TrEMBL record:
SUPFAM superfamilies: Acyl-CoA dehydrogenase C-terminal domain-like (SSF47203), Acyl-CoA dehydrogenase NM domain-like (SSF56645). Its cofactor is FAD. The keyword NAD does not apply. Residues 6-116 form the Acyl-CoA dehydrogenase/oxidase N-terminal domain. It comes from the Bacteria. Belongs to the acyl-CoA dehydrogenase family. This is Acyl-CoA dehydrogenase. Residues 228-377 form the Acyl-CoA dehydrogenase/oxidase C-terminal domain. Signal peptide: none annotated. Keywords: FAD, Flavoprotein, Oxidoreductase. GO terms for molecular function: acyl-CoA dehydrogenase activity; flavin adenine dinucleotide binding.
Amino acid sequence: MAIEYTEEHDMFRQSLRKFYEKEVLPYYAEWEKERQIPRSIWKSYGSQGFLCPWLPEKYGGADLGFEYSVIAIEEMSRADVGIPFSLHSNIIVPYIEALGNEEQKERWLPGCASGDILTAIGMTEPDAGSDLAGIKTTAVKDGDDYIINGQKVFITNGWDSDLVIVACKTGNNEKPHRNMSLIVVETGTPGYTKSEPLRKMGRHTEGTVELFFEDCRVPQKNLLGEEGKGFYYLMDKLQQERIVSALGSLLAAEKMFNEGLAYSKERVAFGQKIGSFQANSFKLAEMATEIEIARTFLEDLISDHVAGKKIPAARVSMAKWWISEMANRVAYHSLQLFGGYGYMEEYPISKHYQNVRVETIFAGSTEIMKTIIAKDLGL
């Protein structure tokens, strides 16, 4: 069942649309070339109430439902830009709101909502991506502090972040799932450094970096939640992250399909529109069907999430893996319709093809999603 939008939702959507048209689109091509989003755009986005709109008013939010985050994600896709607003708003800040004590919330959340504090989360390591329990970064108590040593990799928004939530080993329990804790490390802390932004296939404006911790001293008051429960916190919050990821994949698929469909109705080869060839028309029909199936399933999940219902992890995993793989199929076939022009970076389909590839990898790879589903089936 789709979300029923009201006049207030429409006003929020129109405000977002105006923001992108006025403050982002005239400059985005240059930002993408420089692979850097100006800090001012975050503050402008936050000042208009678009960052973390779900936060309680006392922390700088508007106490709105998750459907407003859905609208924000949709409008960014419509604008065809890539700024990690949603990562910050819907994936990282929720950890602080859910797990932080009152002092931590008052210290960090207002800045997160205004755009004065940008966030990242440090989970993946050179030898631990999907195997999250296998992380090697350690945090050892020393007086009132933790001493952190280790390395994180592929950290989106890490370059611009003012604080990062770091998954660390904090104990010697034989069960690694019970050794992990989440500790907030602020930029500028001695012993904490960042690499230059990594050169990636796509998504060039997301400031993805490696993080290094060498005898990094962090006060114990920066511990989020309880020590030793970090793995379970991550598993819980990954549910919303995977819904957000699935939505991003779906919106990308719709965009690429529409581009391919429009081109098929214009491009002439062998004396006829290329969309009239049965091979192409059947492929477009298949893509349209898969996108419709994906949207129906995902809208049902999002409606349940907005309503606060507990969604089985297997269902979220089904959406995440299938829709991300579907989006990559659409990328392949849509680009193929453009022929040689699709391989040219000046055509949007080329950029979309590059950007969508990572959707099957981050937030839990396709293989991990299938493992979760298989376990649910008793296998």
